[in-house]
Structure formats: structure tokens, C-alpha cells
Amino acid sequence: MVKTLIVPGLFGSGEGHWQRHWLDDHPEAVFVEQGDWNRPALAAWRSALEAEIERHPSVDIVAHSLGCLLVAGLARRPIAERIRSVLLVAPCDLEETERLHPGAIDFGIMPRQRLSFPSLVVGSLNDPYMRFDRLQALCERWGSRLIDLGRAGHINIASGFGRWPGGYDLLKVLNGMAKGDRPIAGPAMQVRQPTLANRL
Predict the structure, then answer these.
(1) Which residues pair with 64 in a beta bridge?
(2) Any idea which UniProt keywords this protein has (predicted)?
């Protein structure tokens, strides 16, 4: 059985965040805990994530912000063979994150290697943590399909994302890609329909 892992970013995903609603709506999903949400260190966070992946024969990963970079960094590690697919929502740019939160993170450099597992990236035109042109370039390097939600901020509570059923739909699409179904057409697809971008 494929287990879904929920991987937050800096400060975790607090009450009301769409990742918390995901756990409520899918009790079989697993929240990946970290020892220190306020001062992320790459080695410690990666160790916790890999330990959780090791508990399952196969996983889908749903990550947000800094958690996306954590997941992308696993692409060339042995544990990657257990990853069926990844949904990466609002990846952050380390330079922008350091500017917004000076001294808070110790995460090395941006992972830019091609991902070794099927991936969808969900981005926004006005995300303060990642310019859209840089996100497009990063997706090209990762070999990821990019879903454009329009002016959706950082796709978090502050930008109006509580329960987000559209994410569940996107994971279904991603699972189809992992099974070899026809992928979403185009390098960057705009998704503005209520069924795929439902915000509360």
C-alpha cells in the first residue's frame, strides 16, 4: 500500500493550513514531524523524512514551501526508490526565504538536479517566496510539470488556502502519471477552475 506523507516547510503547517485539513480528510496520511520547525537544518530534517519513508514500502509525498526543497534533495539518494510521486506546492527560493527570515534556516543550496520520481509543482504568480520566472526555470531543471494557480500568494493560510480539495485532485492526476497515463500537456498549465483550485 502506498502511504501519503505530508511534509511542511518553515514553522510547520499550523491549525487551518490545507496540509492539516488533508490529514483530517485522509486519516491514512502521515504528517512528517521535525524537531525544530522554527530553525530548519537540512541534515536533521532530511534524516527525519528518510526515517519516515523507510517505514513504508512506497510513498506519495505532498510538500509545501521549504518541504519541497527537502523532498527534491532526495532525488539522487537511495531512499528515492521508495518514492512513487511528489506534489510540490509553492516551493520557496532559499535566497528569498533567507531575506524574509534572516538567520532562520540552514538548508545549503537550492536542489537543481532532475528529479528521479514523477512530480507536479503548484505555483503562484505572486508568491513572495519565489518569483514565477525562477519557479519556471527550476521546474525545467527538475523535469516537473508546473500548475499555475494564478495570483494565489504562497498557497497558505495567509493567501486564503484552508481546506483545499483541488490538491486531492492534483494528487490523483499525479498518481496517473506515475502509472504511465498521459501526462498533463504543456510545461506550465493554468488551473483556475473551482474543482482544482478550491479555496476557503
Answers:
(1) 89
(2) Hydrolase, Plasmid
pTM assigned to the model:
0.89
Write down the H helix ranges in the chain.
Answer: 18-25, 42-54, 66-72, 94-100, 132-142, 165-178
CA distance 22 to 28: 10
Average pLDDT estimate for 54-78: 97
User: Which pLDDT belongs to residue 182?
Assistant: 47
Per-residue model confidence (pLDDT) at position 194: 34
For the chain, the distance separating the N- and C-terminal CA atoms, rounded to the nearest angstrom, is 31
Q: In the structure grid, which three cell numbers stand for residue 140, read together? A: 525545467
- Reduced to 3 states (helix: H, G, I; strand: E, B; else coil), residue 189 is strand
Domain 2-190 has CATH 1.20.1560.10: no
Distance, CA of 145 to CA of 120 (rounded, Å): 5
CA dist 138 and 25 (Å) reads 31
Average pLDDT, the chain: 90
**What integer pLDDT is reported at residue 185 of this predicted model?**
41
